């Protein structure tokens, strides 16, 4: 059954918005946020520049929309659900590592754009700080699961620092994108190194 006029207009509007967001993501990744212009985004999306402003508010609105999609990807929830079921520290780290890998594989281009842009754009820096706080809270849930399994509450801060060092914004990308490792190898390596560091932190808290 054909869509009514309002339905067709809404469908066209959604298609245009999706095209604009996809064009912005591609151009931001290829040439950076500051070099990309609204006119270029419009050209790649096949719309008028006015449409870019009307649908997303321009470049900053587009980047914020991409940040929203990155920060709410289901991979994060799935990883945390897996962590909650783990009965070994190593399994917690494996779930976290796999989740980081999925997010990075799906959204790594956006993450790198945001990290590169934030030092020079206060509004983007503020949005990144919001995302970081949420992610730190997610990592903290992994830490608390480890402490529940090991009964070492005094190690909380050090274990959190360890997990952020290995599974924060940079570790996986450094191995995969900068050094050319495949995803599976990077995830295994991160788990092994993090496990040793966590065990040291737990042992230190037990003797403190």
Q: Explain this structure to me?
A:
- Pfam families: TetR_N (PF00440).
- Keywords: DNA-binding, Transcription, Transcription regulation.
- There is one protein chain.
- With 208 residues, the protein is mainly alpha-helical.
- The chain has two domains: 54 residues, Homeodomain-like (Arc Repressor Mutant, subunit A, Orthogonal Bundle); 136 residues.
- Helix content is 82%, strand content 0%.
- The protein has ten helices and no strands.
- The longest helix is centred in the middle third of the chain and has 29 residues.
- It is elongated, with a radius of gyration of 21 Å.
- 30% of the residues are buried.
- The mean pLDDT is 93.
How would you summarize what this structure contains?
With about 210 residues, the protein is mainly alpha-helical. Helix content is about 80%, strand content about 0%.
Query: Could you tell me the radius of gyration in angstroms?
Result: 21 Å
Number of domains: 2
Please state the overall shape, judged from the principal axes of the Cα atoms: elongated
Write down the secondary-structure element order: HHHHHHHHHH
Summarize the biggest pleated sheet.
Answer: none
End-to-end C-alpha gap = 72 Å
- According to DSSP, the number of beta strands is 0
Level of helix content? over 70%
On the 0-100 scale, what is the average pLDDT? 93
Strand content: under 5%
Q: State the low-pLDDT regions, or none.
A: none
The helix/strand class is: mainly alpha
Q: Helical element count?
A: 10
DNA-binding region: 37-56
Protein name: TetR/AcrR family transcriptional regulator
Domain HTH tetR-type: 14-74
Keywords: DNA-binding, Transcription, Transcription regulation
